[in-house]
Amino acid sequence: MTNSALCFHLLILLNGLWFSLIAAQNGNSPQSLALDFYQITCPRAHDIIKAEVIKVVNQNPSQAAGLMRIVFHDCFVQGCDASLLLTKPMVSEQIATPNNASLRQSTIRILDHIKDQVEAACPGVVSCADTIVLSAAIALELVGGPNIPVLMGRRDSQTAASNQTVIANIPSPQLSISGLKQNFQNHGLDTKDLVALSGAHTFGQAHCRVVDLQLTPTVSSDLNASFAANLARICQPNNSAQNRGGFTVHLNFLSTDVFDNSYYKNVLNKVAIFHSDAELLNASDTKQLVQLYASDQATFFQQFKLSFTKMAQMGVVTGQNGVIRKKCSVPNS
């Protein structure tokens, strides 16, 4: 056995132990997912996706947050099945109330392009669902986040969820801490997952129409006064709701487009934008985790890896179920 082959098998063994730990915590890791799922059928899949993501992030680091958002909004609705990317012939999840104008169309086009590159090398083999999750994990590491091994083998749905289903599953930025805990519990995630995955608000942007919920009719007590005034200067150049809707602000002014633990420092300092961010301080268990992650980035990264992996296994379609969509935006004919 060559040194490279030996290293590969050692990597598989170590990651197998990692995923066994996750399965023990999660209670139901899909058995048909595997780190080396495409080793025979499309051995270049990981390298192709990684090369494309590197190009994207080098050109525009903010796309890492866009890719992470796609994972969250896909997996939380009817599982990680790439139903979010469907636009035809049915009503798309992309125009559902929690998603409409909040998902980056440029990020969706990037995923379509990446899938096209994989499809050219291995037609009908690699799913859109796997492409989404792996692309996000690679992008996350490129902007400073932890390395997250990704189990592969998801298959794609042929149908999108209804507007009502999307609304019922995507947690609102206005939820209370009890509402947040219940939402995550409904998805098989616990309090540690809630606080860790909220850490993805360390990068990305918010639309001013959402920020306005914290500024009008009165400034929310969630926000530091000077921070609120700064948000108002950006988001309220006039009283036109139509104009405000087109503006965005960075979720994190400390380290824009970098994945780190500064989100938790922002929460403690009342400079995190969403009400749901501030609500993490309204329960003793979540508050303790916010304080821990604010002071210990390594511990945050370790938990984020676990929580991301659990989220990326929610409601997956595997085996003979589902399909491998040739185009992510349309179901197979």
Description:
Residues 32-332 form the Plant heme peroxidase family profile domain. The protein is mostly helical and 333 residues long. The chain is built from 15 helices and 2 strands. It has helices spanning 3-26, 45-59, 63-78, 105-121, 128-142, 163-169, 177-186, 191-198, 208-211, 225-235, 241-244, 262-268, 275-279, 284-295, 297-311, and strands at residues 205-207, 248-250. A two-stranded antiparallel ribbon has the order 1-2. Helix 2 (45-59) runs antiparallel to helix 4 and helix 8 (191-198) crosses helix 14. It is globular and about 55 Å long.
Strand order of the largest sheet: 1-2
Strand content: under 5%
Radius of gyration using CA atoms only: 20 Å
Task: Supply the number of helical segments.
Answer: 15
Number of strands: 2
Q: Approximately how much helix is present in the residues?
A: 40-55%
Mean pLDDT: 90
Shape: globular
Report the span from N to C terminus: 44 Å
Low-confidence stretches: 10-14, 17-28
- Main β sheet profile: 2 strands, antiparallel
Order of helices and strands: HHHHHHHHEHHHEHHHH
Structural class: mainly alpha
Binding site for substrate: 171
Active site: 73
Domain Plant heme peroxidase family profile: 32-332
Signal peptide: 1-24
